[in-house]
Amino acid sequence: MAGTRLYRYWGDLTEALRTGKPQNESRHNEEPIFDVLYRDPVKLEGFMRAMAGLSARNFESFVERFDFSMYKTLCDIGEATSQLSILVAKANPHMRCISFDLPVAHC
Known about the structure:
Blueprint lengths: L1 H10 L1 H7 L13 H7 L1 H25 L7 E5 L5 H9 L4 E5 L7
Parallel strand pairs: 1-2
């Protein structure tokens, strides 16, 4: 997913920095990526797995280093796979974790 979608945008990074113009699908007159993903459950699942893989270590590090002791609730908006809430809840049983996302993200 990352390679097929993002490689060309990183290749255009110099132009993006120089001009300040977007280098995503709109530049190439293509359909927005989420319109494509939300129509295709297989692609959406692949995207969500890719995002979970990219986020896993960052979330683990956050949960290991942040002191949640004085908090009772975590609310993750745009949670996709609920990965952050799951990790926080496992490490902090005193917390209530709430996750929200668009209905299409719960495929």
